[in-house]
Amino acid sequence: MNASRMDNHASLGETVGGLAEDVQDLVRGEIRLARAELDQKFRQLMITAIWLLGGALVGFAGLVVLLQGVAVALTVVLPAWAAFLIVGLVIVVISAVFVRSGLKMLSLKALSPDRTAANLKRDTDMVKEHT
Description:
rod-shaped; mainly alpha; about 90% helix
């Protein structure tokens, strides 16, 4: 009977050791997943920044065009003030569309690591069930 108890203790120790290794592997895996997901979110953030910069540059280019050729050409048909107003409004609307598209991509919800959070919750629930 005494030998039986020692076998139980050894298997309990092995079980605890195995559990510790499993938890370490799980944590390492979650860290790798979080890193990969954050890398993906960072790439998305960079693309968003490019869209925002593109919108700003198009808006600036539109202002330059507004102050130069197109508005001057319209002064042949319209009074100068009307030509500048029409061209300016069109360029501002185009710029607003670019900026709005970029801002939609920049939402904090889009940047949160959803898969990692779901995996951590699932892992926590699993550990609670087994303890």
